[in-house]
Automatic annotation (TrEMBL):
Organism this protein belongs to: Sinanodonta woodiana
GO molecular function: transferase activity
Keywords recorded for this protein, A-Z: Disulfide bond, Glycoprotein, Membrane, Transferase, Transmembrane, Transmembrane helix
Disulfide cross-links: 223-232
Active-site residues, Swiss-Prot/TrEMBL: 29 (for sulfotransferase activity)
Region of the whole protein represented: 92 to 366 of 374
Limits of the Sulfotransferase domain: 20-253
Domain of life of the source: Eukaryota
Binding site for 3'-phosphoadenylyl sulfate: 29-33, 112, 120, 222, 237-241
Designated name of the protein: Sulfotransferase domain-containing protein
Length: 275
Protein backbone atom coordinates (compact mmCIF):
# COMPACT_ATOMS: atom_id res chain seq x y z
CA UNK A 1 0.00 0.00 0.00
CA UNK A 2 2.24 2.82 -1.14
CA UNK A 3 -0.65 4.89 -2.45
CA UNK A 4 0.87 5.00 -5.91
CA UNK A 5 -1.01 2.23 -7.72
CA UNK A 6 -2.67 3.32 -10.95
CA UNK A 7 -6.13 3.01 -9.43
CA UNK A 8 -5.18 5.42 -6.71
CA UNK A 9 -3.90 8.61 -8.27
CA UNK A 10 -5.24 12.02 -7.36
CA UNK A 11 -8.13 13.03 -9.60
CA UNK A 12 -7.22 16.65 -9.19
CA UNK A 13 -3.60 17.57 -9.91
CA UNK A 14 -1.89 19.00 -6.85
CA UNK A 15 -4.13 17.23 -4.38
CA UNK A 16 -2.54 15.10 -1.69
CA UNK A 17 -3.44 12.70 1.05
CA UNK A 18 -2.69 14.50 4.28
CA UNK A 19 -2.98 13.60 7.92
CA UNK A 20 -6.19 15.08 9.32
CA UNK A 21 -5.94 18.59 10.76
CA UNK A 22 -9.23 17.97 12.50
CA UNK A 23 -10.79 14.83 14.00
CA UNK A 24 -14.38 14.24 15.08
CA UNK A 25 -13.74 11.99 18.08
CA UNK A 26 -17.33 11.12 19.07
CA UNK A 27 -19.53 10.53 20.83
CA UNK A 28 -21.28 7.55 19.32
CA UNK A 29 -24.99 8.12 18.47
CA UNK A 30 -24.77 11.88 18.95
CA UNK A 31 -24.97 12.75 15.25
CA UNK A 32 -21.38 12.10 14.17
CA UNK A 33 -22.39 10.96 10.66
CA UNK A 34 -24.74 13.87 10.07
CA UNK A 35 -22.05 16.31 11.19
CA UNK A 36 -19.43 14.76 8.92
CA UNK A 37 -21.75 14.66 5.90
CA UNK A 38 -22.89 18.25 6.40
CA UNK A 39 -19.28 19.41 6.71
CA UNK A 40 -18.40 17.60 3.50
CA UNK A 41 -20.57 20.16 1.67
CA UNK A 42 -17.92 22.78 2.45
CA UNK A 43 -15.51 23.34 -0.47
CA UNK A 44 -12.57 23.76 1.91
CA UNK A 45 -13.26 20.53 3.77
CA UNK A 46 -12.40 17.03 2.67
CA UNK A 47 -13.77 14.20 4.77
CA UNK A 48 -12.77 10.55 5.10
CA UNK A 49 -15.98 8.60 4.51
CA UNK A 50 -14.91 5.53 6.48
CA UNK A 51 -14.30 5.46 10.20
CA UNK A 52 -10.53 5.02 10.46
CA UNK A 53 -10.18 3.35 13.88
CA UNK A 54 -6.50 4.19 13.75
CA UNK A 55 -5.87 5.49 17.25
CA UNK A 56 -8.20 3.12 19.11
CA UNK A 57 -7.21 -0.14 17.44
CA UNK A 58 -3.76 -1.34 18.51
CA UNK A 59 -3.30 -3.38 15.36
CA UNK A 60 -4.04 -0.41 13.12
CA UNK A 61 -1.99 1.93 15.26
CA UNK A 62 1.05 -0.33 14.91
CA UNK A 63 0.85 0.11 11.15
CA UNK A 64 2.02 3.66 11.65
CA UNK A 65 1.14 7.17 10.50
CA UNK A 66 2.07 6.49 6.87
CA UNK A 67 -0.63 3.81 6.73
CA UNK A 68 -3.12 6.19 8.32
CA UNK A 69 -2.22 9.00 5.95
CA UNK A 70 -2.56 6.73 2.94
CA UNK A 71 -6.17 6.02 3.92
CA UNK A 72 -7.04 9.71 3.84
CA UNK A 73 -8.87 11.28 0.89
CA UNK A 74 -6.99 13.45 -1.56
CA UNK A 75 -7.23 17.11 -0.61
CA UNK A 76 -6.03 20.33 -2.20
CA UNK A 77 -3.68 22.70 -0.41
CA UNK A 78 -5.89 24.87 1.75
CA UNK A 79 -8.46 22.16 2.26
CA UNK A 80 -8.85 20.69 5.73
CA UNK A 81 -8.90 16.90 5.99
CA UNK A 82 -11.31 15.52 8.61
CA UNK A 83 -11.94 11.99 9.80
CA UNK A 84 -14.45 10.75 12.37
CA UNK A 85 -14.28 7.69 14.60
CA UNK A 86 -16.79 7.86 17.46
CA UNK A 87 -14.98 5.25 19.54
CA UNK A 88 -12.01 7.59 20.01
CA UNK A 89 -14.07 9.45 22.61
CA UNK A 90 -14.07 6.54 25.08
CA UNK A 91 -10.84 4.73 24.21
CA UNK A 92 -8.29 5.50 26.88
CA UNK A 93 -5.10 5.55 24.82
CA UNK A 94 -6.44 7.80 22.08
CA UNK A 95 -5.94 11.36 23.36
CA UNK A 96 -2.26 10.76 24.02
CA UNK A 97 -1.78 9.11 20.64
CA UNK A 98 -3.46 11.93 18.78
CA UNK A 99 -1.35 14.43 20.68
CA UNK A 100 1.76 12.53 19.62
CA UNK A 101 0.69 12.87 15.98
CA UNK A 102 -0.06 16.60 16.18
CA UNK A 103 -0.29 18.51 19.43
CA UNK A 104 -2.10 21.41 17.74
CA UNK A 105 -4.74 19.29 15.97
CA UNK A 106 -8.35 20.50 16.23
CA UNK A 107 -10.85 18.17 17.85
CA UNK A 108 -14.62 18.10 17.58
CA UNK A 109 -16.82 16.34 20.11
CA UNK A 110 -20.52 16.15 19.40
CA UNK A 111 -22.75 15.48 22.42
CA UNK A 112 -26.47 15.31 22.94
CA UNK A 113 -28.78 14.87 25.90
CA UNK A 114 -27.07 11.94 27.65
CA UNK A 115 -30.29 10.02 28.33
CA UNK A 116 -31.40 10.32 24.70
CA UNK A 117 -27.98 9.04 23.73
CA UNK A 118 -28.42 5.94 25.90
CA UNK A 119 -31.78 5.23 24.25
CA UNK A 120 -30.30 5.77 20.78
CA UNK A 121 -27.39 3.48 21.59
CA UNK A 122 -29.76 0.83 22.93
CA UNK A 123 -31.92 1.13 19.78
CA UNK A 124 -28.87 0.50 17.60
CA UNK A 125 -27.66 -2.50 19.60
CA UNK A 126 -31.22 -3.83 19.63
CA UNK A 127 -31.58 -3.52 15.85
CA UNK A 128 -28.23 -5.23 15.27
CA UNK A 129 -29.16 -8.12 17.55
CA UNK A 130 -32.55 -8.57 15.91
CA UNK A 131 -30.84 -8.64 12.51
CA UNK A 132 -28.58 -11.46 13.77
CA UNK A 133 -31.47 -13.39 15.33
CA UNK A 134 -30.01 -12.88 18.79
CA UNK A 135 -32.08 -12.49 21.93
CA UNK A 136 -32.73 -8.97 23.12
CA UNK A 137 -33.50 -7.48 26.52
CA UNK A 138 -35.82 -4.64 27.41
CA UNK A 139 -34.20 -1.24 27.91
CA UNK A 140 -35.37 -1.18 31.52
CA UNK A 141 -33.70 -4.54 32.19
CA UNK A 142 -30.28 -3.55 30.91
CA UNK A 143 -30.23 -0.04 32.35
CA UNK A 144 -31.44 -0.95 35.83
CA UNK A 145 -29.47 -3.41 37.94
CA UNK A 146 -32.14 -5.75 39.37
CA UNK A 147 -30.13 -6.44 42.54
CA UNK A 148 -29.87 -2.80 43.58
CA UNK A 149 -32.76 -1.36 41.58
CA UNK A 150 -30.36 1.42 40.58
CA UNK A 151 -28.91 2.49 37.24
CA UNK A 152 -26.28 0.05 36.05
CA UNK A 153 -23.33 2.33 35.28
CA UNK A 154 -21.41 -0.71 34.07
CA UNK A 155 -23.79 -0.95 31.12
CA UNK A 156 -21.73 0.35 28.22
CA UNK A 157 -24.39 2.67 26.82
CA UNK A 158 -24.77 4.33 30.23
CA UNK A 159 -21.03 4.64 30.66
CA UNK A 160 -20.52 6.34 27.29
CA UNK A 161 -23.07 8.97 28.31
CA UNK A 162 -21.02 9.95 31.37
CA UNK A 163 -19.50 12.70 29.27
CA UNK A 164 -17.49 14.33 32.02
CA UNK A 165 -15.66 11.13 32.78
CA UNK A 166 -14.39 10.85 29.21
CA UNK A 167 -13.93 14.53 28.42
CA UNK A 168 -11.72 15.16 31.41
CA UNK A 169 -9.22 12.74 29.89
CA UNK A 170 -9.12 14.76 26.65
CA UNK A 171 -8.47 17.95 28.56
CA UNK A 172 -5.36 16.39 30.08
CA UNK A 173 -3.80 16.38 26.63
CA UNK A 174 -5.39 19.30 24.77
CA UNK A 175 -6.02 22.94 25.49
CA UNK A 176 -9.52 24.23 25.86
CA UNK A 177 -9.54 26.11 22.54
CA UNK A 178 -8.52 22.98 20.63
CA UNK A 179 -11.73 21.14 21.48
CA UNK A 180 -15.02 22.30 20.01
CA UNK A 181 -18.25 20.86 21.36
CA UNK A 182 -21.16 20.54 18.95
CA UNK A 183 -24.69 20.34 20.35
CA UNK A 184 -26.09 17.18 18.75
CA UNK A 185 -29.68 18.00 19.72
CA UNK A 186 -29.35 21.34 17.96
CA UNK A 187 -27.70 19.72 14.97
CA UNK A 188 -31.01 17.91 14.45
CA UNK A 189 -33.22 21.01 14.66
CA UNK A 190 -30.88 23.82 13.49
CA UNK A 191 -28.03 22.16 11.62
CA UNK A 192 -26.74 25.25 9.85
CA UNK A 193 -26.25 27.15 13.12
CA UNK A 194 -24.09 24.36 14.48
CA UNK A 195 -22.18 24.12 11.20
CA UNK A 196 -21.44 27.86 11.29
CA UNK A 197 -19.86 27.39 14.72
CA UNK A 198 -17.67 24.62 13.34
CA UNK A 199 -16.62 26.82 10.40
CA UNK A 200 -15.57 29.49 12.89
CA UNK A 201 -13.64 26.94 14.95
CA UNK A 202 -11.81 25.74 11.83
CA UNK A 203 -11.07 29.29 10.72
CA UNK A 204 -13.04 28.85 7.51
CA UNK A 205 -15.40 31.29 5.80
CA UNK A 206 -19.04 30.29 5.33
CA UNK A 207 -18.95 27.64 2.65
CA UNK A 208 -22.38 26.03 2.86
CA UNK A 209 -25.33 28.03 1.63
CA UNK A 210 -28.68 27.70 3.35
CA UNK A 211 -30.35 25.95 0.44
CA UNK A 212 -27.97 22.97 0.65
CA UNK A 213 -29.88 21.71 3.71
CA UNK A 214 -33.64 21.24 3.81
CA UNK A 215 -36.00 19.64 6.28
CA UNK A 216 -37.38 16.39 4.88
CA UNK A 217 -40.86 15.88 6.34
CA UNK A 218 -40.93 12.17 5.53
CA UNK A 219 -37.65 11.48 7.29
CA UNK A 220 -38.22 14.00 10.04
CA UNK A 221 -34.61 15.15 9.62
CA UNK A 222 -32.58 17.56 7.56
CA UNK A 223 -31.23 16.20 4.29
CA UNK A 224 -28.81 17.59 1.70
CA UNK A 225 -29.32 18.96 -1.79
CA UNK A 226 -26.94 18.28 -4.64
CA UNK A 227 -27.13 19.24 -8.29
CA UNK A 228 -27.84 15.59 -9.05
CA UNK A 229 -30.58 15.33 -6.45
CA UNK A 230 -31.20 14.98 -2.76
CA UNK A 231 -29.48 12.86 -0.14
CA UNK A 232 -30.62 11.84 3.32
CA UNK A 233 -28.61 9.83 5.82
CA UNK A 234 -29.10 6.05 5.69
CA UNK A 235 -31.96 4.19 7.33
CA UNK A 236 -29.81 3.40 10.39
CA UNK A 237 -29.79 7.10 11.30
CA UNK A 238 -32.92 8.48 12.90
CA UNK A 239 -34.34 5.23 14.24
CA UNK A 240 -37.60 5.17 16.11
CA UNK A 241 -36.86 5.08 19.82
CA UNK A 242 -38.80 2.68 22.06
CA UNK A 243 -41.17 4.04 24.69
CA UNK A 244 -39.32 3.91 27.99
CA UNK A 245 -40.76 3.60 31.48
CA UNK A 246 -40.65 7.22 32.79
CA UNK A 247 -39.37 6.04 36.19
CA UNK A 248 -36.39 4.44 34.53
CA UNK A 249 -35.68 7.57 32.50
CA UNK A 250 -35.88 9.63 35.67
CA UNK A 251 -33.39 7.32 37.41
CA UNK A 252 -31.05 7.60 34.46
CA UNK A 253 -31.36 11.34 34.57
CA UNK A 254 -30.55 11.49 38.29
CA UNK A 255 -27.62 9.11 37.93
CA UNK A 256 -26.14 11.22 35.17
CA UNK A 257 -26.63 14.38 37.21
CA UNK A 258 -24.85 12.84 40.19
CA UNK A 259 -22.01 11.77 38.00
CA UNK A 260 -21.38 14.93 36.14
CA UNK A 261 -23.50 18.00 36.69
CA UNK A 262 -21.18 20.05 38.91
CA UNK A 263 -18.12 18.78 37.22
CA UNK A 264 -19.41 19.46 33.70
CA UNK A 265 -19.63 23.07 34.83
CA UNK A 266 -15.81 23.06 34.95
CA UNK A 267 -16.05 23.30 31.21
CA UNK A 268 -18.38 26.26 31.23
CA UNK A 269 -19.09 26.13 27.53
CA UNK A 270 -20.38 22.59 27.77
CA UNK A 271 -22.45 23.05 30.89
CA UNK A 272 -25.54 22.79 28.72
CA UNK A 273 -24.93 19.06 28.44
CA UNK A 274 -25.68 18.59 32.09
CA UNK A 275 -28.62 16.25 32.17
P1 LIG B 1 -31.15 8.12 16.29
O1 LIG B 1 -31.02 7.10 15.20
O2 LIG B 1 -31.20 7.51 17.64
O3 LIG B 1 -32.27 9.10 16.07
P2 LIG B 1 -24.35 8.76 14.84
O4 LIG B 1 -24.20 9.14 13.40
O5 LIG B 1 -23.30 9.36 15.70
O6 LIG B 1 -24.53 7.30 15.01
O7 LIG B 1 -25.69 9.45 15.37
C1 LIG B 1 -26.94 9.02 14.94
C2 LIG B 1 -27.95 10.08 15.33
O8 LIG B 1 -27.79 11.22 14.50
C3 LIG B 1 -29.36 9.66 15.10
O9 LIG B 1 -29.81 9.01 16.29
C4 LIG B 1 -30.10 10.98 14.82
O10 LIG B 1 -30.93 11.39 15.89
C5 LIG B 1 -28.97 11.98 14.67
N1 LIG B 1 -29.09 12.89 13.53
C6 LIG B 1 -28.72 14.19 13.56
N2 LIG B 1 -28.98 14.77 12.40
C7 LIG B 1 -29.51 13.83 11.58
C8 LIG B 1 -29.98 13.85 10.23
N3 LIG B 1 -29.95 14.98 9.51
N4 LIG B 1 -30.47 12.69 9.71
C9 LIG B 1 -30.50 11.57 10.47
N5 LIG B 1 -30.07 11.49 11.75
C10 LIG B 1 -29.58 12.61 12.30
Amino acid sequence: EDGKSSADRPLVPGSQKRLPQCIIVGARKCGTRALLEFLSLHPQIKVADMEMHFFDDDENYTKGLAWYQNRMPYALPGQITIEKTPRYFIAEKVPQRIQAMNSSVKLIVILRNPSTRVVSDYAQVYANKIAKNKTVSRFEDVVIDPRTNKVNTQYKAVRISLYYYHLSRWYLYFRRHQIHIVDGDKLITHPLEEIREVEKFLGLPHGISEDRLYFNETRGFYCMKFQQGEHCLGATKGRKHPDIDPDVLQKLHVEQSLNQSERMADFTDIAKFEP
